[in-house]
Specification:
By secondary structure, the protein is of the alpha/beta class. The chain has helices at about 10-30, 50-55, 75-90, 105-115, 135-145, 155-165, 175-190, 195, 215, 220-230, 240-250, 265-275, 285-295, 310, 325-340, 355-365; strands at about 1-5, 35-40, 65, 95-100, 120-125, 150, 170, 205-210, 235-240, 260, 280, 300, 315-320. It folds into two domains: about 1-175 and about 350-365, Glycogen Phosphorylase B (Rossmann fold); about 180-340, Glycogen Phosphorylase B (Rossmann fold, 3-Layer(aba) Sandwich), CATH 3.40.50.
Amino acid sequence: MKIITVVGARPQFVKAAAVSRALTAFNKRNNNIYFEERIVHTGQHYDDNMSKVFFEELQIQSPSVNLEVGSGSHGHQSGVMLERIERILIEFKPELVLVYGDTNSTLAASLAASKLHIPVAHVEAGLRSFNRRMPEEINRVVTDHLSTILFCPTDVAVQNLAKEGITKDVHQVGDVMYDSVLFNSDLSGTSSNILKRLSLKNKSFYLATIHRAENTDNKARLEGILDAFNSIDVPIVLPLHPRTKKALGTKLGKFNNEVRIIDPVSYLDMLALEKHARIIFTDSGGVQKEAFWLGVPCITLRDETEWIELVHAGCNQIVGADTSAILEALLKAEAIVEHGFPSYTSDLYGDGCSSEKIAAILGKMGQISVS
Ligand code: UD1
Ligand code: UDP
């Protein structure tokens, strides 16, 4: 089966690494080359520490093509991607296009493929924030409705799709990011020296990431977060996304000395920081779950989350960007650190073999056609 995987943004490299590894393993087990996968990189993320480092560290096959689309407004970025991806699909004639998550790269790839009647498989289907002001919500709704095969990470995601009338070829396989954490966690322990580099001790610091447009593009929200961080007297490590760096501009100098601003880090370094952090503040989707898998209380700087199971399990607090709400949540998170992480009864995101399940399902499907 000729597959084109389209990726472009940091979290997609982490997800694609797990699935590509499973496709290769499936081929090996079956003594043949069942899957012939090519990776197309849209170029949405292009700094070495947002892209290249992930391909190297996670040993992802080099992209066959980099479309070098780069940054721009949503219309420009998605439009250029659409045109360039279409050209590649016409040239390579894949039998399936594999897409991940909810970025503009996901949207462009699913649009280009479906107009050419090429089946689309969507990994991380069915997530909803029910906030249409988020570009990601628009991307994921459209992608789900264009997809032929939908791989959902949770039961809630399956239910969301059913409510929108999507029930055919929907598979609850768990979360491929969990596969990635399990695969790389020990490796991160042995090969990352970031704690040493930053002179950090286990559980003596907080970790934070901020990059969502709803925070970076809203002055009041960004200041609310900045003020909260400035009133905390524990070191906060903040690997800064380029979008946030740009948005902060001169305010970058307004963080107090406890806030340690660093460049975005590699995945193995990030896992090491997450594992040893006392508490994590984030507006990232992936980081919320990684905090859970690594047993670290999470404070989510958003007004809602697609990963609602974490809130129900008592591992994640949704607080928005209000200074006092963040500080109040910090007290609760500290109590969790003190009294122990909540125990949960089920594997919320599968068993760590989601990628193998995806490979097995695709392997059984043989010829896939758009209905
Ligand atoms: C994108 C995704 C978001 C995802 C995030 C992961 C969309 C709409 N958003 O957001 O869902 O959570 O990736 O990190 O697709 N920039 C650089 N260097 C880079 C990449 C970006 O400097 O390598 C800067 C540019 O100024 C750019 C800005 O960051 O304009 C935003 O980048 P963009 O890819 O448009 O969106 P993200 O905020 O990264
Ligand atoms: N990540 C990383 N380095 C960083 C910040 C994040 O490797 O400096 C990883 C993180 O561990 C997770 C993924 O990037 O696996 C999440 O990406 P991001 O937060 O950019 O996007 P989202 O998940 O919100 O779409």
